[in-house]
Amino acid sequence: DVRTKALDLCRKMIHDHKRIIFSGDGYSEEWIKEAKRRGLPNVPAFIDSVEILTDPKSIHLFKTLGVYNEKELSARRSILEEQYTKTVEIEARTLVEMTRKDVLPAMCKEYRFYAEAGTSSKYMAAKAKTLDHLISSADDAAVRLVDRLDKVLQDADCYKTGKDVYDTVCPLMKELRSYLDAYDKDADPSVFTLPTYEDMLFSL
């Protein structure tokens, strides 16, 4: 009986592997806590996930199946680590370029408008103060991001470089983006040439 046999197989699979089955949000804090309770590993970064390729169990599995040998797995791991670093590098440099060529000039132009209007209006003064803070913060964050990225990329160890990128470069990218997002919310469309989130969702 095919149906009975299939149900038996499904029953066995669920029994053997139910601890990895989770029907909720796999990116949530709930799952992180649940995975820990079940004794499952939590690997938050891609750079850490590729380590498994050179784990003895992985090597044995791939060699037994005739898919990869140990050298090929090691090479594949190195390639993935390098790809991760280069991808983040491109994203970081693109972020800095857009900040300096598009966002900061728009911020400065808008700031001049409010600053030259004087302090007679509380709104004008507050707007100028906010823009001044965002300009200084974004420029400083961009400088620190480039400096850190250039320093990290000097290391020849692909894994260590990837870890440094994740641990130190990505947080700086997130910080810089926070200033750009803050400006994006109230940017004057007459000076801000980049499409806003609203434009991308409803106009493009």
What's the total count of β strands? 0
Number of helices: 8
Largest sheet: none
Helical content class? over 70%
Low-confidence parts lasting 5 or more residues at pLDDT below 50? Answer: none
Which geometry do the CA atoms define?
elongated
Beta-strand percentage range:
under 5%
Mean pLDDT: 92
Class from helix and strand fractions: mainly alpha
Order of helices and strands: HHHHHHHH
Radius of gyration: 25 Å
Oligomerization category of the chains in this entry: single chain
Intertermini distance: 56 Å
Condensed summary:
By secondary structure, the protein is mostly helical.
Walkthrough of the structure:
- The longest helix is centred in the middle third of the chain and has 47 residues.
- The chain has 8 helices and no strands.
- By secondary structure, it is mostly helical.
- The termini are far apart.
